[in-house]
Design a protein that fits this description.
three-stranded antiparallel sheet, 9 strands, 27% helix, 31% strand
């Protein structure tokens, strides 16, 4: 599902292989992002950091390497997914720090459904497309404009037919 909105371009690991990171090119926004994953209490990798909206790959790589180095040195990872802009006067002005949907974000929204109102319309479409993909639909997220009112095209296919939603 991630491939719909982003393409993985590079992977990194710390010296012990306990922290991993990926550089992503966001195909909808045409910018660069990174995610950092680390082991949780049971050893599964979870989101522990990230950065968004870098103008080029080199800037994103410099940022991820610095962030991973800091996490490795201090043992501290930020888990902040959403940060309110200090000058924000309403929830609509809250800045979302991530660009890509994954299972960790879905868990976050399951625990904090009120935060769904803080998503931009496009990010909400991406979340719904990802969830539909989890249900087995083949999903196409249409371009952000001039889509004729269609935001998501989803097919559920079987041996007899394809159900269009």
């Amino acid at each position: 599902m991630l491939a719909m909105v982003a393409t993985e371009k590079a992977w990194f690991a710390d010296s012990a292989g306990e922290i991993i990171g990926a550089i992503l090119f966001d195909r909808s926004d045409k910018d660069w992002n990174y995610v950092i994953l680390g082991p949780d209490d049971v050893g599964d990798f979870r989101w522990i950091g990230g950065g968004t909206s870098f103008k080029d790959r080199q800037t994103a790589e410099t940022a991820i390497l610095a962030a991973m180095s800091e996490i490795e040195k201090t043992g501290k990872a930020t888990e902040e997914l959403i940060r309110a802009d200090p000058s924000a006067t309403c929830a609509e002005e809250t800045r979302i720090l991530f660009r890509d949907m994954n299972d960790e974000l879905k868990r976050y929204f399951a625990q904090h459904p009120e935060k769904l109102y803080d998503l931009s319309p496009r990010k909400f479409e991406e979340l719904i497309a990802s969830i539909m993909g989890d249900f087995g639909f083949d999903v196409e997220l249409t371009p952000a404009s001039r889509d004729g009112g269609r935001d998501i095209i989803a097919y559920l296919r079987n041996a007899v037919c394809a159900y269009l939603t």
